[in-house]
Structures are given as structure tokens and as C-alpha cells.
Amino acid sequence: MADLEYREMQEVLRKHDFHFKKKYGQNFLIKPDLLHDIVDGAEVTDEDTVVEIGPGVGSLTRVLADRAKQVYAIEVDEKLIPILDETMAGYDNVTIINEDVLKADLTDIFAQGRVKVVANLPYYITTPIILGLLEKDLDFESITVMVQKEVAERMQAVPGTKDYGALTLAVGYYTDPQILFLVSPDSFMPQPKVGSAVISLKKKELTEQQRSDAKDIFTVVRAAFNQRRKSMVNALSNAGVLGRTKDEITEAVQEAGFDTNVRAEALTLDDFIRLTECLKR
Questions:
Q1: Cα 59 from chain centroid?
Q2: Rounded-to-integer distance, Cα 141 and Cα 117, Å
Q3: Considering the entire predicted model, what is its pTM?
Q4: Could you report the per-residue pLDDT of 34-62, keeping only the tens digit for each?
Q5: pLDDT for 258-267, tens place per residue?
Q6: What is the DSSP code string of 32-70?
Q7: Res. 113 pLDDT band, cuts 50 70 90
């Protein structure tokens, strides 16, 4: 079917008396070429099941449905459901789910194999959505999402920079991130005040041990970055991380090969893995 053009989008929004809601961070993509670029970047094929988060009026959903075997479009705003029913009426491979993705049980969908997540994410909950998908250890092949430019940069940040943090490490543990391209504010309706980027996160093949270790590693990471201005010893002891005392944490930091005054932003992912091993002994 044809792309959802800007004029058609305006007409369907007027017809259903739809008003944009700030609480849902709604900014709909209006450039067809950009929609195709996103789907190209996600490498969607007719063998793939796609999970789309926040389909809006279905602009990206249509392009995905033309390429994918099956599309599950998860939309929290009930006011958009009748609009999606209308704009997706010609597709028999699209399932619209009116739920909050942060609360939805997606296990059965991700159990189907060859699942790719593709979305223009609401910027206010980008990080919880990404971390939720990663930490639930769902069986996806890749996540290709439109996010705020600075969030994409945080996902690819390097140690010692202000952008480097818990999100960087979680993304790096579970996936190989790559910013595909930048997107200007005039690509949306209404226009956001910030630049955007499309980033691809291709899932790494983790061992059972790596999956098992992840919870403790990211307990340490979050505690360290929650007080990133403090030394690692103080940040971890203030959080009582893994039930260790300050003396035990000091010993573990030294055993891992770090100065006791080292801060979280100086440690690489491998450093955090090693430190967690020392803390667990």
C-alpha cells in the first residue's frame, strides 16, 4: 500500500479530533523517505517479526508491514487506536496492542524468533524502554530506534566523558551500537526542540554465564553512577552494594587493580565486570 502522506495524516487526525499529548511525548514522523531509511537501517525482511513501540498514526507501521512478515504495534494512547484501525485497515499482518510497553508482557511475541524492534521512541521514556528490553533478556535480533541525539551519543560514549554512564554500559554489554544517521526537527509533527538520531543496536550472543552475571554487574554499575561524583568506594558503600561493607568494597576495588579514589566514569565495561567478580568473592 501507499505511504501515509502528510495530508492524509492531517485529515485522519482532524476526523478523529486528535490532540497531541505532552505526557506521551508524541512527535509523528512526516517524511516518507525518512521512514524508508529507518526500515532499511533495520534490515527488515519478509522473514522478520517486528515490534513497533509508539506507532502513532501508523506512518512507520505501513512501511514495516510492507516489508515484514508480522508487525506488532504497541500504542499506549487509546485515542490513537481507532486511527490505527483506520490507517492499517488494508493490512492483515499488523496486530495493534493498546498497552504500556513498560508493563506489557511481550514474552510470547519475542518467542517467535527473528524479532526486530523498530520505533520512533517517545523521548521522555527512551531510557526505561531500552533498558527494559535489554535487561529482560528478550530474544530479539536488533533494536533500531529514533531517539534524541544526545541519548544516542550517550549509548556510544567513551569512558571519561560526561555522556558516559549506566546506559552506555548496558547497551555495550548486550549489543553493538551504531548511530545510522541524524534527523532534523522539521521531520516531525509537532517539531521537537532537539535534534534526533536513528541508532541500531544489534544483539550480542551472550553465554549463559554472561546472562546470569548481568544482574550483579548492573547493580554495581547503577550504584556507581547514581553518585558519579563520589569515589567508587564511597558510592558503592553508600548503596550497600551486594551487601558488602565499606572495608570489603575497598579491598575489592584494590584487588580489581584500581585506586580507591577512582570514579565510575573512569572504568570500562570490562573493568566493571572484573570489579563485580572481586566484590562477589
A1: 20
A2: 8
A3: 0.93
A4: 999 999 999 999 999 999 999 999 999 99
A5: 999 999 999 9
A6: HHHHHHHHHHTT--TT-EEEEE--TTSHHHHHHHHHSSE
A7: confident
Question: Strands 188-189 and 28-29, how do they pair?
Answer: antiparallel
% of the chain surpassing 70 pLDDT = 100
Angle at 191 between CA 24 and CA 16, to 5 degrees: 55
Residue 230 — φ and ψ, nearest 5°?
-90, 165
Beta bridge partners of 175: 203
SS3 call for 247? helix
Residue 100 grid coordinates: 504500556
CA–CA separation, 65 and 54 (whole Å): 15
In DSSP notation, 119-171 reads EE--GGGHHHHHHHHHHTT--EEEEEEEEEHHHHHHHT--TTSTT-SHHHHHH
Instruction: Give pLDDT, residue 2.
Output: 73
Instruction: Give dist(CA 245, CA 25) in Å, integer.
Output: 42
Instruction: Report the C-alpha gap between 99 and 55 in whole angstroms.
Output: 12
Estimate to the nearest angstrom the gap between the alpha carbon of 113 and the chain centroid: 19
Residues in the chain: 281
Q: Is the pLDDT of residue 1 over 70?
A: no
